[in-house]
User: Fold these one by one.
Assistant:
Number 1:
Amino acid sequence: MGLTIALNRGRILDECLPLLAEAGIVPVEDMSASRKLVFNTAIGGHKLVVMRGSDVPTYVEYGAADVGITGKDTILEYGGGTHFYERLDLRVGRCRLMTAVPASTADGLQMREGHLRVATKFVNVARQYFEERNRQVTIIPLSGAVEIAPLMSLADCIVDIVDTGNTLQANGLVALETIAEISSRVIVNRASMKTKFDEVQLLIEALRAAVD
Ligand code: PRP
């Protein structure tokens, strides 16, 4: 029957394609040389669908895709494990979701007491993180270039992805606390887990072998 597999375009896709290839899932044409968004695979009758990372959980939750590959950050922001099954850590796309502040205000390892304005793309994760710590915050949603928010006096603090730390450093920020360790994960639609059990299981085991 074949599986529909939703893939996070960009960096995650580049790192996941070799793993998929090792698991026997190879698109019939070069994905990077095409403007297409849906690709058939040579063996197995699977379909690869390329989309924004934040849409992968939506496609998987509603069953438009059986399987999805996206970052743990995106999964956490979507609301995690009740909407689908998280089945495998691909151990690529590794980074951290962190709080960061301007170097000038980073007194020790603690952010200053009192109310904080927090700029982020990860509004749900950030809200929950500060709520659990009984911090009064205003979450300021942004869609990118979050690091400039403190420079522009829009926020006191940011919650964002940190990989090398170069972006923080270049903008005079320092990382404070790690909210979550991030890597790419394989998620599975709840109904597909039952109706396409064998195919899903084969895929997961092949990917697990590729990761190991
Ligand atoms: C991410 C993140 C940071 C940067 C961190 O952005 O939002 O801006 O990478 O990487 P570094 O620690 O190695 O500097 P990305 O390039 O993925 O683009 P985005 O703004 O679309 O998320």
Number 2:
Amino acid sequence: MTHTGTVYLVGAGPGDPELLTLRAARLIESASLIVHDGLVDPAILALASADARLISVAKKRSKHTLPQDQINALLVREARAGRDVIRLKGGDPFVFGRGGEEMEDCHAARVPVQIVPGISAANGAAAASGIPLTHRDSASIVSFVAGQCKGLKDQNWAGLAGKNRTLVIYMGVKTAPQIAEKLMEDGLAPDMPVAIIENAARPEMRVLRGPLAALPQLVEQQQVISPALIVIGDVTARENTAVAQMALEAAA
Ligand code: SAH
């Protein structure tokens, strides 16, 4: 009987290779097979050895190159053929990364799985933009939500944003107008401060700020592209974030 390989669900972080865990870096460097998402930065893939086989299963919001069940099947097939598979994902595999689904399918096929956490976009973006997710004066609650999901309108976000709380929205660029509308319908003030962090922890990062009511215009006029996070709450308007922005501009 062939030995079964292990599937490693590995978080690649938000982009900067320096933000990989040591374990992720070692696994990538020694991998013979890497199955990766489109979000994984080329600088990280460049750590792989020249003879590693790299398979991209890039997903775009409207264009799936490989449906999720086929990705899961690919992982199982390779592991059953005796190969260890490094399944490399942007950010953390268990935060909007479908890592749970891949793990469950592997377990169902009796393929061993190991999870290697990564720095999720929210943490990477917070650090890179100087916007703390929590702050004793501004927020003691932080929530992560998916802005592109089935039935966005019916999602109950009541109470997730507002005074003393921070709401981080993943995958929300395309649905920004509906998101702003939804939050204001829930009672959020139109002047609640908002930040958009595009390409966090990458050289081309942009940090944009404005009031909630202007979120759709900000996205449109500044032509915000994916990947970007929308952060809603007073933490985005603290004075020290302006200082961090100046430091960013000075460094650019
Ligand atoms: N597992 C990932 C999230 C995957 S969902 C994680 O933990 O970060 C994809 C969404 O993540 C994107 O639409 C975007 O909202 C966010 N994202 C990922 N990388 C990002 C980056 N470098 N800058 C800003 N947002 C990012």
